[in-house]
Design brief:
Helices cover about 0% and strands about 30% of the residues. The protein contains one helix and 14 strands; from the N terminus they run ββαββββββββββββ. It is globular, with a radius of gyration of 15 Å. It has about 170 residues and is mostly beta strands. The chain has a six-stranded parallel sheet, with no helix packed on it. Strands 2-4-6-10-12-14 form a six-stranded parallel sheet, with no helix packed on it. Strands 7-8 form a two-stranded antiparallel ribbon.
Length: about 170
């Protein structure tokens, strides 16, 4: 299986750790708009081909695991992949076929700082961490994610200055 979409249901409980080991070919995992709780399993980083992870609109808590920076489907270690079968919708506009990479953890109760390891996701196009309880500063390394087109950090508890590295983002 490469595509698993269980969004907008009433699934509850913790996110299954077995997804990382039992579904190694997943490229798309959408569990948005359910009632999942608990932490983001570090085993999700085992999904080497994962290109879309959408856990938005749940009650997931804890820190964002730094191991998410190891997901090679997102271009970690310079290993960008192209998805040639699905259209992309980013910011409400059909973008056609591009490097489809999206990480959406918005509208949960995640806390702590944004892990530096996310900067390894060099193919990331959409990063949405809005509507959580994230603290600390907006990391300076955010500008290292060169393909980033959409960055959502609103409605957190971030502080400090806006990093000048955001001006390095040209997409």
């Amino acid at each position: 299986m490469t595509f698993l979409d269980l969004a907008q249901n009433m699934f509850s409980g913790i996110l299954p750790e077995w997804i990382g080991s039992k579904l190694p070919s997943l490229t798309h995992l959408r569990l948005r708009s359910n009632m999942f709780t608990g932490n983001i399993p570090t085993q999700l980083a085992e999904l080497g081909d994962l290109q879309l992870l959408d856990l938005a609109d749940n009650r997931i808590s804890g820190y964002i695991p730094s191991s998410l920076g190891n997901m090679t489907g997102y271009g970690a270690s310079g290993n960008d992949r192209i998805v040639d079968s699905l259209p992309i919708v980013t910011k409400g506009q059909d973008r056609g076929v591009i490097y489809m990479v999206s990480l959406d953890l918005s509208d949960n109760v995640l806390d702590g700082e944004i892990p530096e390891e996310l900067s390894a996701l060099t193919g990331l196009v959409n990063l949405n961490l809005s509507r959580n309880h994230l603290t600390g500063t907006v990391p300076w390394y955010i500008g290292a994610i060169k393909k980033l087109e959409s960055l959502g950090l609103s409605k957190n508890m971030l502080s400090g200055g806006i990093p000048s590295s955001l001006s390095d983002l040209t997409h």
